[in-house]
Amino acid sequence: MLNLCFGFFISAFVVASSAFAGDVAQFRGSAGNGVVPPQDIATSWSEDSNVVWKVKNPGAGWSQPVVWKDRLYVSGAVSEIDLRPANFADGLKSPQSMGVTLFAKPPDVEVEWKLFCLSLHDGQLLWDRTLSTGKPKLPIHPSNSWATETPVADERGVYVFFGATGTLTSVAHDGTVGWSKELGVFKTSSNFGTGSSLAIHEGLVFCQQLTEESARVTAFECSTGSEKWNHSRSKNLTSWSSPLVWRNAGRVELIISGGQQIESLDPTTGQQFWTLSNVKAATACTPCADRDQLYFGGSDPFSKGPLFAVRSGASGDISPEKENASFERCAWLQERQGPGMASPVSSGKFVYTTDSNILKCFSAASGERLYQTRLPSMELVAASPILVGELLLLVDENGKSCVVRTGPEFEVIGEGSLADTFWATPAVTDGNIILRGLDSIYCIRK
């Protein structure tokens, strides 16, 4: 998912058992944590180098592409007017960025919310399906999109959620539309719109709706669409963070984050393992994890929270008495180091965060900040970094990219440049880097 800012600014090395090593089944890879299997990727590219195909983006949206075998799926919105979101600078000009929503209105136009299936080989459109139609019910921020939520996939097909319509739909890999659920459309903070992507685990798809009018996460059976369980929070607060399936040393947990609360649920039953409140949780970005620890935090233009590390094995209420203080099972915290728009990622040894165009590297064991540096030639990083073996892939809004070798010292081994606008997180599979821009979709390969 991507992240935005101003409260919205949307802001495990184990691959899901139902996915193949080459698949990108959900937001931030098949494990959902920003880590994909090691593979031989291009470390530099341009419009004339290592771009093996480029096609027009078929629909407007910031959702990440997902890949299943030889098929690439993207969700998007289509209308007779231009629905493409604004870049960061243009979005800042909106009064909504400062919380002024009096004049925010949805467009008075019919919109088709669609799923597009492309060939991973050459980008050819194989089919598309309209999953919802109508006029938007609520406004969004100019820099958000009408299709920000990333779909998920398994051997049965693709599951697509549009927060703007409240519609969750299953679509088979041949394009046959299966079950569909209408989950409701709810107001978000400052009318920024929605952005929480789906997550998937062992035949269940998880849909998070944390808004000003709802506070729930629901699990549906992938095969039938039947509701398996529903968990509600006590307070309605908007979050654009996405659910994270954390496969740690002791168990599998579903992590839900937003506002000042992190919760861990049993993904099979929805029962709560632990809860943590009175902390600045990930609301714009999504937490990350490795086998031993969970990492989270949040920052916005008005406040910077800590970066926290939580050891696996917690139970019950582990909240600190003092806001943003250490707590039971807290391995470490670093004051004012919470991530910005893009989600953090952990290699198991190192934890990486970005804030605008600043990359920070922390020791996963101790929390020590090993370096903080400005990324060369790059500006705002909205897309979440992806870890490919020992390489960290970062893409900024203006199409500048950087490939960094993991380790305690900053080392750039390659750079890329494309003339487009990028907020969607990259999808990396079988040596292919798939970048979804505002105008086009690109496949980069050696």
Fold topology:
Blueprint: E1 4-5, E2 9-10, E3 35-36, E4 51-56, E5 66-68, E6 71-78, H1 88-92, E7 111-119, E8 125-134, E9 152-153, E10 157-162, E11 167-172, E12 177-182, E13 199-201, E14 204-210, E15 215-221, E16 227-232, E17 244-247, E18 252-258, E19 261-265, E20 272-277, E21 288-289, E22 293-300, E23 303-311, E24 316-317, E25 330-334, E26 345-346, E27 350-355, E28 358-363, E29 369-374, E30 386-388, E31 391-395, E32 400-405, E33 412-417, E34 427-429, E35 432-436, E36 440-444
Parallel strand pairs: 3-30, 20-24
Antiparallel strand pairs: 1-2, 4-36, 5-6, 6-7, 7-8, 9-10, 10-11, 11-12, 13-14, 14-15, 15-16, 17-18, 18-19, 19-20, 21-22, 22-23, 23-25, 26-27, 27-28, 28-29, 30-31, 31-32, 32-33, 34-35, 35-36
Word description of this protein:
The chain is built from one helix and 36 strands. The chain is mainly beta. The chain has a single domain, classed as Methylamine Dehydrogenase, Chain H. The chain is globular, with a radius of gyration of 20 Å. The two termini are 26 Å apart.
Q: What's the number of structural domains?
A: 1
Major sheet: size, sense and barrel closure? 5 strands, mixed
Q: Care to count the β-strands?
A: 36
In whole angstroms, how far apart are the ends? 26 Å
Rounded mean pLDDT score: 93
Proportion in helices: under 10%
Fraction of residues in β-strands: 35-45%
- The CATH architecture comes to 7 Propeller
CATH superfamily: YVTN repeat-like/Quinoprotein amine dehydrogenase
Low-pLDDT windows of residues = 1-20
Q: Under CATH, the topology is which?
A: Methylamine Dehydrogenase, Chain H
Using the CA coordinates, give the radius of gyration.
20 Å
* Strand order in the sheet with the most strands: 3-30-31-32-33
Q: What structural class do helix, strand and pairing data support?
A: mainly beta
